[in-house]
## 1
Amino acid sequence: MPYCPDCGVEIGNAAVCPLCGARNPKIDASHEPECGDKTDARHSDFFGEAGAAEALTPKEKRKISWEVVTVAFVIASLVITAINILIVGRLSWSLYPVSSFLFIWTMATAFLVLDNRPRLRYTLAALDAPLFLLALGVFTSDISWAWKLAVPIALFTELVAFSVVLQIRNAKRKGLNVFAFLLIGAAIGCVGIEIFVDLFVLGKIRMGWSAITAIALIPIAVFFLYLHYRVAKTTNLHRLFKL
Amino acid sequence: MVIDKSQRFIHTKQVDESGAWYSLDNAGIIMPAVTDAISSGLFRIEVTLAEPVDEIILNRALADTSNRFPYFNVVLKRGFFWYYFDQCQTSPQACEDESSPCQHCDTNRQGTRMFRVRSTGHRIAAEFSHSLTDGSGGMSFMKTLLARYFALLGIEPGATIGEGDYADILSVDDQPDREEYEDGYQKYFPGKLPLPEPNPHAWHLREPRLPEGRYRILTGRLKLDEVLAEAKRRNVTITELLGAVYLDALQSLWFSKPRKPRKHFISVEIPVNLRNFFKTKTNRNFSLFILLRENMQLGTRGFDELVKRAHYQMRLENDPRSLARQISRNAGGTRNFFVRITPLFVKNVAARILFAKLGENMLSGFISNLGAQRMPPGLLPHIDSFTFIPAPSKTTLTNASVISWKDELIVTFGSLAHSRELEKLFFRRLRGLGLAVSVRCRDDEE
């Protein structure tokens, strides 16, 4: 029986050793695999050698996407900045597209690269929009609207969106409950936006349109939850509530 | 059915106007919260027959066997406080086998049976969710299925099944015994005992994963008498010897890292069949585990030293009193009133945390030995081999299981990792001990 020369284990008629990938010495040396040979391709795939591109893992694909985005944005930013300086003689309008690129690039970095660092990923993603808005405030020479209105709304919207996503992800059975979570999120979002706008414009809270929106949305959401968890699931109540 | 209050935790079955339903056993309750389509919680027992499988006969045998094991023919349902199993009204059908076992099956999805039988060519395989049963329960089902399959083909077993060496092969003509689906952990709940010693977090392999849906199976076959002789020479059991080989492979991987890993414990979990200590006929989960652990900060240990230490660690922990501490902690938790009235969605969050802290974070891998399997003499010529495949895990990535059949000891590695380094080190060590090893990887062949 054929043995792997490196591992010393019997490997039968396998083309390569299943453990180390060494070629089976008993297989006719003249049988060189042709281009695209199935066995050889699989071998490369399993041992992570050449041909890995054929079977890129999702992580590898994301990393390549991030690299492409990075290179494209760097080139675009350099070109825009150079043109701005050439025409105006100083940095002015180019700050807007460059900061937009930076905003998108940070988001791309968070979601394409930082797989193994979830805390950093979500911190970056959460801070990205408020920082971008602050930067726009600085560029417009009036930071007050950014600081008092845009940043609070951005942070609040992120918080609501995060809560909704968490609820949906944790739901084992997804159906009408997803719509219910979205409606509740929208209702809370509207109320929050009106509060921040009121505080910024009037200096006090005067609930109006958002309260009407919430009053309309919440009962629908509750009805959806009721349908999802109680009606659309045939079950015996004793089973359902067994302690 | 009226259940005595003292028995309420032990007897899992209840019947109401909609039919039978079952509570999950104490080990199974945590699984739905921590499994998904990849870490499916499915382990697999497969048999290679001497002749090609007759699909029609197999389905008839499967119908008879699932009637004999009604507590296996169930789907998972969510209650407000606990999960429960709902009895299926139809018999399962065997399906075509695929190259990646234990994948593409999320038992949490509504209507998914907690086990499935697959076949192709000469092979019959059964995959069981760990919510439902452990290796011993699964093996009892598989052997009963095989015995029924051969009976329908007109092949006589040549021995009485259901007793002696063949006690785990059940007759499909008998009615299920209540003990077969009892919760063994609750039956032998020892009351409040000191908590088990806390275990440090173990180092895990950090390797690129195979593409989603792929689970590599690599099988090594050894001569049982050679392995037994080697274990005997060292005054250890086969499980202890293989546990030490696993630790040795992990140790080599730990020290091969260019940067010293932050977690400096390597740890191998050895499942223990509690039926060896506590009498029960249960086919539900009834196993716990012992951890073989080494601190890598103390430097590299020689193989002989690892074998000795694995032996003594096993001897210390593999006794009913030590195991009772684990039963007390686990079963006691589910008896606690405040735990019981906690809604399921909160329990699920807690289960994930507990599983991370007290489960997979404590081990670098596991090696599960189902032991020597026996089938009646009349069936032996018709069965070529048994294989036991461990459940996939996204945390440990690679795990192993062991089974002995006839004169062979079969070690099977299941891996989600791209690298085969662990398997290579494991089998090279066995080869280095002078044991003949034959290795196959199904993915390379199919």
## 2
Amino acid sequence: MEVQIYRYQPEKAKKPYMQTFHVNPDKITGIMLLDALESIKTQDDTLGFRRSCGGGVCGSDGMNINGKNGLACQTTLDSLGDKVVIRPLPGMPVIRDLIVDLTRFYKQYESVKPYLKNRQDNPDKERLQSVEDRDKLDGHYECILCACCTTSCPSFWWNPDEFVGPAGLLWACRFILDSRDTEEAARLEDLEGLYRLYRCRGIMNCADVCPKGLNPSQAIHKIQSRMRQKATG
Amino acid sequence: MAYVEETHDALIVGGGGAGLRAAIQLSEAGHQVALISKVFPTRSHTVAAQGGINAALGNADGHDDWRWHMYDTIMGSDFMGDQDAIEYMCKHAPQSIIELEHMGMPFSRDENGKIYQRAFGGQTREYGKKSVHRTCAAADRTGHAMLHTLFQQNVAHKTKFYHEWYVIDLLFSDQQEIAGVIALCIETGEIRLLRSRFTLLATGGAGRIYQSTTNAYTCTGDGLGMVARAGLALQDMEMWQFHPTGIAGAGVLVTEGCRGEGGFLVNREGERYMERYSPHMKDLACRDVVSRSSMIEIREGRGCGPNQDHVFLKLEHLGEKVLQKRLPGITEISKTFANVDPAKQPIPVVPTCHYLMGGIPTTRLGEVIKVIDQKDHIVPRLFAAGECACVSVHGANRLGANSLLDLVVFGRACGIQIHQHLQQGASLPNIDKDRLEKVISRMETMNTRKKGISVSQVRSKMQTIMQQDFGVFRTGDTMASGLQKLKDLVAQHERETILSDHSQVFNTARVEAYELDNLLSVALSTAYSAFERKESRGAHARVDFPDRDDEKWHCHSIYLEGKIGKRPVNMKPLETDSVPLQAREG
């Protein structure tokens, strides 16, 4: 198969270019796109991409595969056809080849204060949480911060410094929904205004690309609905 | 070589569970701590842990006791774990888990709203008499839930991070204290000398010495390599755990929690063979026992699939509801990596390299030790925690769900130790320039060699040797030849390995070249230690020495620069009774 890869090496050339590699899927170990990239790297070790767990849980190898964001380690080669075009995640500054600068992504994530806040004193044992309350977190806590969703979001491309983006908002929702968190009001207030939350235009690329099958768009709706409840008292 | 100097109270190398837990302790106390990680911390391999974390909370069984947990851990370790350290871990387990819950970790819950606990391998109540549910779980994503929670607490406490910096080597003072590290900024290629009063190594495992492993690409034994290069010892390096259920071909982990929830293994005849090997514990026997049993099934021609090279893990009978509620990640993983729906078909699995029980020897509080004339001496200002450390709480075989526990208990313990030292007003050690020169000359060698063998070729040869000669079953002859091949490979590597790409910006080839040095240190120490230990104990199963030999080998093995020494196993817990040597099922 033919694999076209976006190359950018700032010390060598000012401009990025596409480079074609030929891979025989029968001759590489493994069935995933990441295995093909590793095999290419044994021939050309200048190729830059991030990877770690290889099992779809660390979120390192998010990239744009045939026009759609996804994880290389869980994209099977036989799902890709004979020609594959791989580019870095869109909308972020490229550092080298498939490696993007995620500073803005992490900054927005941190901006939602992604940690449990509880004003009460800790009990001696665990805080109790009913099965039903815990169930509310399902679909919200599993995010792996791969940035596939946020970098596929046109609203984030336009306003990366103002709009929190789908991943950050999914995390915000995870803490708003947690029965152990006492700071819902402050969390909602923090998302007021034209941009942080409401820049979402319901495009839903986020839900379409999430490699964990999560739905940030729905989480955003949940926050918006709580906002409305709060406004109407 | 140009570099900038910077100073911190404490440096933590590694952003997995142990490093992050220690960082919370120190940041919370207001110390100036910096955490250096070669990946963004949530990419660390703690994230891949699935099944859970052990603590005798007794939520499911009415009553549980940390002494029973301690007994199971000692039995599981095949008496090679240090009993004072195991006592410390099991005793502090409940408190450590409660702390995680208070930090916001999204544990699954039981009908009383308490933390959900499931059954896991090798665990009992009342000293082996009854079964127990001791493993606290967040569905089958416990590592993910824990790592993100710990990272988030560090965000809350404003810990200083060096994201995507790679630590190359330790620095020493002229008093032979640890004085910090030298590190590379992966993004820019900048070199920095990070001086520190105390240094904690929390660099994780090294499973990438094997061809097939559940470990991340980044599990390259960096801390172990640094320690070995610094002339310090490594302990019990022959003790590698092979997890019974890695997906055949892909190596991706399938949690022991599957068997904890009622799944079981079958051979090609559909026989539930663990009933034969371990009539009492069956599929929840210790991992070393289950892995050996599966390998025997495969070797004797009862393996599954066209090549009879794996066995099946059956979950169909659990029903979609249990799979969805308790094992949603496994359902997803099986579909992605094995093309199998576990609600309808069995999962093809095979014993796969998973965890290093050995590592950097430490006291039960995480202080790194060196052995001189058979006596322990503390290496001043250096700590180690997590998989890179050998406290030793796992001995010759780790119990499932004791690794996440190890991370939080000893990450916390190291944080407390360093905090106390800092409070007493520790000085900043100077830097021994001669030793620094040696480190720098190693870094420069990499840039000068023009022709030779590539990093990936050497790595692949090493992985083949380890897979073939140092797997589940070992024999003296094949290990001798494996060790020789490995020595030759290391010699060739030192003469010939080249780095062709000398660029500065995000040069992953350079990082992989550094990692290879560490992998080879780990592989070599494993080969030496495995060859020397002439008995079978826990995960170290020798065909030519099939029995445990307590008289000669009830000891830790200490690897130091090509030689193996022995160190006694601690049999004296501080406040409870010692568990005397005895036979172990399977």
